[in-house]
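Exercise 7. Predict the joint structure of the components listed below.
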Amino acid sequence: MSTAPSTGQAPRREADPPGSVLARVRRVDPRQYVVYVAFLLILAFFAVTLHDDGFLTSDNLLNIARQTAPVTVMAVGMVFVLSAGEIDLSVGSIVALAALVTAIVLRDVGLVPAVAAGLGVGAAVGLVNGLFVTLLRLPSFLVTLATMGLVAGLARWTTDLEAVAVVNDTFASVFGSGDVGPIPSLVVWTIAIVALGHVVYRHRRFGAHVLAVGDNAQAARVTGIDVNRVRLAVLVISGTAAGLAGLLYVGRIQAASYTLGANDLLIVIAAVVIGGTRLFGGAGSVVGALVGSLIMGMLTNGLILMGLDSNQQMVAQGVLLLIAISLTLREPKGA
Amino acid sequence: MAELSTAPGTPLVRLAGVGKRFGAVVALRSVDLDVHAGEIVALVGDNGAGKSTLLKIIAGVHPPSHGEILLDGEPVRMATPSDARAHGIEVVYQDLALADNQPVYMNLFLGRELVSGPLRRLDRARMAAETAELLKELDIRIPSPRVPIRALSGGQRQGVAIARATHWGERLILMDEPTAALGVQETARVEDTILRMKERGKAILIVSHSLDQVFRLADRICVLRRGEQVGVRETAQTDGDEIVAMITGLR
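Solution:
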């Protein structure tokens, strides 16, 4: 059902003027849109089956949007990492460490240093990841696998597994429970980060370089793109995004704990690849990642409302994920 | 021994005693060669003769161990591929340095993307339009500059790679076996494109294993054997037998 343009058809299509509607329609890769269709189908399914449980109420939908904010922010960073042909397994651990450091600095120093510290932790871990990947030419899979454990250990060590409460109203309002007009601040963060990510990804030279590096690093290199700089940058972006996700968790829960973000890695990667980003680099979509993240959030929410316990939810999520990736990730024949 | 070209005027590129040593191994002894604007010079020789090494020296991949490269009579030092590019030298690689999932126009402008406005937004429309125009000039037919490279045939891909080199290579285009992976018809098309580049006044240095192709395209033929320059011949004044003899060293 998802047919990529095949080589054999190419000459026949020469007749189409490049900008014509026909040419545009033929260029469309249906897999790009599976995520949007899936989003609507899942929304419709829960809206009908969970009608009496209030799935479609604005409260519940806003709740989903709020809960997915940290995952969406991480997903935006992960789009850059995967598009560049790398991966960042340390994001979940960064969330925990950034959250704890933020909460401690907030308690002992102040608001602005706390925000800087949280983002700084994320950026610093990303920088370490990036330096190992670029200077020692190690696969990011292994480097971030190591830092995932290392950072998770640091998070546990920081407070000896103790949670840290946050009693700063300004922080809680900006990063969690507050509103901007009628819009929850977490939704504002989501929109802002997705918009920023989309612009950088689609409309800046950097985005084009990220895609080129992930597609064919050799080709990128011979055209003068600094491949290592791109690899370093995407890992710093991802780390910083995970740091921000940590802030958003702290703002929403008004406490930090080493368990924050522990289950997020797979959800983030699922959201990103469902959203049309190639796991092996060279193609992707920031907006798709947002929709993927909303799908994952809807599933969790809907399955809870259906009365599934957390064990059953894991099974259901796994099954749905398999269906989703089968529809979106199948490589075109002959590719 | 090596003969210098007899063509008039300052050559676009002059190699004067250029060679390369890797430790104790001499990959290329000493090459003297001129390439003029609007001229195609072929590099031929058996495997390991030093053809690729010579291309890489001129492309800035391996700086020469000895000898000089002169562009328009001026000696230049090219330590990296970026240096060579800055001097208007482009390479068409055998293994097609193209990003498969990116659109054709993006491959043409890879690393040198066009931006517009104060926010330096990528100007995709202009890149696509300029790509379409360039491909039309070179008579390289593809469905649209916006299709990804993977949607193209091998010949179309090589056409895009050559178009990119033509667009950015002000002076010299280096080609390493540009038709090695192509069928007969596609080879003929790519050869047409190469001749069109020559008409545009580019200097072209081409490595090819096909002597037929060399005789179809080249104005002069430079023969290397085991890292040594055996000689340079005007295509019009030599024949396949002589070139084969020079390549093999059997006379």
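Discussion. Chain B touches chain A at residues 81-82, 85, 91, 93, 95, 97-102, 106-107, 110-113, 115, 120-122, 128, 132, 141-148, 150-153, 156 (CB under 8 Å).
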